[in-house]
Amino acid sequence: MISRNFITLVFVLLTVLAQAQTNKETNIKMQDLDQPFFLSLKENRTIENTDSLSIQFTDCVKEWGYDTPPEDPDRKYFEEVQYTLEMKHIGFTNTVSFTSSNIQENLYFLFHEFKIYILSEDYNDQNPKLELKVEELK
Questions:
Q1: Where do the domains of the chain lie, and which CATH numbers do they carry?
Q2: Most buried pick, 10, 52, 74, 129, via CB within 10 A?
Q3: Cβ–Cβ under 8 Å, residues 89 and 111
């Protein structure tokens, strides 16, 4: 028979895990707009004083394997991470996906009057992060 303390412990752990998976939201002040910042998975950033530009890191999938069949003596192992961001501004939404190899190519996205740079990645299974920078186009 399962003890009551064990059930309580499992419930508490599941509650903490569920809270950790909920979206976090933070704001960036307009004067800090051109400064790099990190965005964690399920985190949402809103730029103040810009009609609410919002950027959310919505998904992250790691893929790995070999690039050719086992009989190929020159086959190579690969790892690639695919990221998804959702951007919202003045009622418009745009979802973009890109891979870790794209980040090395000075990756940026244009969305309304903003240029969103993806500067770097910090992938781990527990808390993947992206380093971004937002510029307002004038």
A1: 23-136 (2.60.98.10)
A2: 129
A3: yes
